[in-house]
Amino acid sequence: MELSYWQSRWQNDKTGWHMDVIYPLLKQYWKHLELPEGATVLVPLCGKSKDLHWLADHNFHVIGVDVSPKALKTVMNKRPDNFTKSTSHGLTRYRSKAMELWEGDFLKLPPMEIPPLHAIYDKAALIALPPDKRKPYAEKVLELCSSTTQIFLQTFEYEQSEMNGPPFSVPQKEVNELFGRHFEIDVLHEQSKFEELQGFHKRGLSSYLLEKVYLLRPA
Known about the structure:
This protein has 219 residues and is an alpha/beta fold. The protein contains seven helices and nine strands, in the order ααβαβαββββαβαβαβ.
């Protein structure tokens, strides 16, 4: 699953994963991070998520990264502030007072250009990736973390043989394998979504579907 796959999906408006509302569990659980006002929050694979606006409107400095210029343009068009455009390390960078958006491959995001991160908000980023892409993604996340960075992570768990991703099933064991050496991992929320997400049934899902939200604190 290459970058061209996601670029094509965005270009052809095949973005069924996009939530047209602010993620309810963000509003419910973000307070557990106890971040100071003005804290810097990185949002990998951000798309045009309205969560970016919620974070910025709550006085966080938001850094979003996505491969789709169309998605990022949508984000910028909904902001009251002006963005300046530049390039760095092969990526395009848009900056305003409250928000910074990077267009390109998340794995190529230059750490030296990113300020110290208070938090990383992973909503449907890790689960968008097939198994062979998840370790490189996690390694990049770890590269960008400081000694105090926390991670807010959302996942799905289901029987992978029943349905092709994305979203992919990422069990808690794998979360521990990817991040457990560096973080204390707590489950903030666990809920069955099997009845709610009926569209997955048409794709073959027949047994269970769990949504989990984790808070990762530096060990």
